[in-house]
Amino acid sequence: MPRALDILLVLLAAPIWLPLAAAAALLVRLRMGRPVIFRQVRPGLHARPFTLLKFRTMRPGAEPDAERLTPFGRWLRRTSLDELPELFNVLRGEMSLVGPRPLLPEYLPRYTPEQARRHEVRPGITGWAQVHGRNAVTWEEKLRLDVWYVDHRGMWLDLRILAMTAWQVLRCRGVNATGHATMPEFGGRSDGETDARQ
User: Fold this and answer.
1) DSSP state of 45
2) Each residue of 147-183: pLDDT tens digit?
3) Strand (E) positions, 49-197?
């Protein structure tokens, strides 16, 4: 999505998302304490690292993600409210509203050359893979959809994805893969077994 359109849409929607973000931040603080914001380095455009911002949904600890995910955190994820801080990543130019989701840095050497093309555009809050199953599809399919988006991206497709995303959020579908807090770890050509935050 063009940078100017990203900024325009985020600012136009600010009267809606800013109060929601403030309310979510307060609830996270009251229910889980500090920190309210989860920060994690992710690869962005051309795989350059940036700090992703999300509302915290897990308790600290060494247990698997599924055990640390709180009931309130699960609700935040199901409603996608945990993603609201990423709008600040969009305003800073690190992300776009639409694009492949930013994954973990350790996945970079595991991509095939074709899969690595997902980094030819800014990562997005939502994307073509998210409106076609989100975390309920396999890694192979998700990355294929990301590359399809890179090859077919344009303003009208981006607006279509945003409209489809609104419907997906209302349905609360595809938030996690079966048996995982989100998705199993991407292991390259075959999936791994450890949960990875998306």
Assistant:
1) G
2) 999 999 999 999 999 999 988 877 665 555 455 556 6
3) 49-55, 96-98, 124-126, 183-186, 191-196
Of 73, 125, 77, residue with least CA distance to 99: 125
Q: Token match 């791994």: residue?
A: 192
DSSP lists the bridge partners of residue 39 as 53
Q: Model pTM?
A: 0.86
Residue 75 tokens, joined: 């609700």
The residue whose two tokens read 């579908």 is 173
At 144, list the tokens: 């294929």
CA distance 186 to 106: 9
Q: Nearest 5°: phi and psi at 186?
A: -80, 120
Helix %, strand %, coil % of the chain (to 5): 50, 15, 30
How far is 74 from 58, CA to CA, in rounded Å?
9
Structure tokens at 168: 């997906």
Task: Specify the 3-state DSSP secondary structure of 31.
Answer: helix
12-21, 169-178, 187-196: range with highest mean pLDDT: 12-21
Residue type, 74: R
CA-based torsion, 91, 93, 94, 96: positive or negative: positive
